[in-house]
Amino acid sequence: MQSSQGQGDLHETVGAYALGILDDAEATAFEEHLATCEWCAQQLDELAGMEPMLAALADLPGTRGTPAIGETLAVRPSPQLADRLVDEVSERRAKKRRRGFYLVAAAAALIIGGPVTAIAVTGGDTTQQAAPEQTVSPAKQVFSDTAAKDKVQATDASTQVSLAVGMDSKPYGTGLAMELKNVKGPQKCSLIAVGKDGERETATTWTVPKWGYGIEGAATELARNPLYLQGAVAMKTADIDHFEVVTFDGDKLAEVDV
């Protein structure tokens, strides 16, 4: 849009202002006009719910033209303006969807420390795939960097769940990095540090999805990857007797002595 606008142009700008797609100069000019124009103020109130309507219209393939925004509006936007508004909303929603995908991928990398593959889709073609990037989660990195002498590991004879814990003495207590394998879901679990005096402290909690973690021979890489998590307890490392993985229902899945 041009920054120099006449009175008629400013009347037509109300829709773009309602969607927040004006630049700073255009928005300032319209706000100055709005202070003295009751008609635009009324239209702005009526257009308050226009973005969801345009968003729905933008989701319909091949749909263009003036959206039906109700008979109460005294003036309908021109087809050109309506097309621009629909395009703006469509692009904004596309950005949100892309951002949501990236956040899900990043969250998966942080939890399981497995590779994340980005898929590029253009023109409806889903066969184009970027090279996978190996991403190591912070918890896995900490666990890997922990010296062998500061790690303990055991596999429960009954559940076959494998638990390994790396310990790092800190001024506040003990920092922990955990690796968990062969645990099936769905269920919720906790890592418990048990002191030599019997005191119990929860280091971290998590949810095991239905596909599980660290399942050898599983059909998907997601299920084959172990679970890596970080946690901490107030106990000094020398005061810890053992660690337990316990479900929220009270079932012990694994135990490892320090």
TrEMBL record:
The keyword Signal appears for this protein: no
Residues of the Putative zinc-finger domain: 11-41
Keyword Transcription included in the entry's annotation: yes
TM annotation in the entry: 100-121
Top-level taxon in the UniProt lineage: Bacteria
Gene3D superfamilies in alphabetical order: Anti-sigma factor, zinc-finger domain
Pfam families the record matches: zf-HC2
Keywords tagged on the record: Membrane, Transcription, Transcription regulation, Transmembrane, Transmembrane helix
Protein name: RNA polymerase subunit sigma
Organism for this UniProt entry: Streptomyces apricus
Taxonomic placement: Bacteria, Bacillati, Actinomycetota, Actinomycetes, Kitasatosporales
